[in-house]
Amino acid sequence: MTYSNILVDYQEQIALVTIDRPKALNALNTLTLQELSQVVEDLANNSSVRVVILTGSGEKAFVAGADIAEMNMKTPLEARTFSQLGQKLMNQIESLPQPVIAAINGFALGGGLELAMACDIRLASEKARFGQPEVNLGIPAGFGGTQRLPRLVGSGRASEILLTAELFDAQEAFRMGLVNRVYPKEELQEQALAMARKIAAKAPVAIQLTKSAIYKGANMDLISGQDYEAEVFALAFHTEDRKAGFKAFLEKSQTEFQGR
Ligand code: CAA
Fold first, then answer.
1. Are residues 103 and 192 in the same domain?
2. Is 217 in the same domain as 118?
3. Which ligand 1 atom sits nearest the alpha carbon of residue 167?
């Protein structure tokens, strides 16, 4: 399937998804949100894909936010629908069975940072710049940023970012734990692929159950989260990969996990 604003490239078990509106710094308009949602739905049903990398097209931006020109035309009711469309996409990415690595190649602002925050792991180019500048436009963040940012960096730091609208660089994002690693611009994609390959070589069901426990647990109290963890732990014991993984360890050999 081809899209107007999204490119999907497959490298063995890895899907590289690129938001491709470089002239608008990959801003998220309705069409881009809808296309990305379709891509995510297709990936959810594609068991040959074990890891997804999400990045932006061009030299400057990962995603510079929701599309300001399009939002300018919206009534309050249409704005609510737009916000919900973005939120739904972020939730869809978060609940995708496969891990998603954001390769943040430039500006990650507003809806762009919200998109990165819906991913499991964030890798950044040293040229990347971050921020939630919505209040400069007279609006709050609307694609989950007021909720995910405090959960990721704590409410004090999140409040400063959301209330001052100040942009910050990749090293600062790294210091606050918002991005996992920072690389020279030209190394980012290769490093993202290397991490994706590493994850893709692990037992896929165990990877999916781990992702699920992390996200489900984030919305539960500790005891309920541990109950869920015990359930997914037990579930993994039904898999062939569990048997193969234990056997390989005990026999000091290697195994290739089959995802079943
Ligand atoms: N929406 C629509 N178009 C955008 C855009 C956006 N978020 N960001 C950039 N563009 C467009 C610009 O309008 C410009 O288009 P033209 O060439 O047709 O004029 C093109 O991309 C290049 O941008 P600039 O000329 O502005 O590039 P720059 O290097 O001078 O500045 C920038 C880069 C600092 C990222 C600047 O573009 C900028 O501030 N962009 C807006 C960032 C922003 O406010 N994002 C939040 C949006 S609101 C939101 O996301 C709400 C939400 O939570 C759901």
1. yes
2. no
3. 34
* Shortest-distance Cα residue to atom 8 of ligand 1: 64
Among the options 134, 187, 240, 251, which is catalytic?
A: 134
Q: Are both 36 and 148 inside the same structural domain?
A: yes
Instruction: State both tokens at 247.
Output: 């056997």
Q: How far apart are the first and last CA of the chain?
A: 27
Q: What is the pLDDT of residues 69-111, one digit of tens each?
A: 999 999 999 999 999 999 999 999 999 999 999 999 999 999 9
Host domain of residue 25:
6-200
Q: Which strands sit side by side in the sheet containing 129-131, from one edge to the other?
A: 61-63, 107-109, 129-131, 168-169
Confirm whether 259 is domain-assigned. no
CA distance 125 to 18: 15
ipTM of the complex: 0.99
Please indicate whether residue 134 is annotated as part of the active site.
yes
Q: Across-strand partners of 129? A: 169
Mean pLDDT, to the nearest integer, of 140-145? 98
Mutation to probe ligand 1, out of 28, 29, 60, 68 (largest number of atoms < 8 A from CB): 68
Residue 160 annotated as catalytic: no
Structural domain contains residue 257: no
- Same-domain status, 220 and 196: no
Q: What total of structural domains would you count in the chain? A: 2
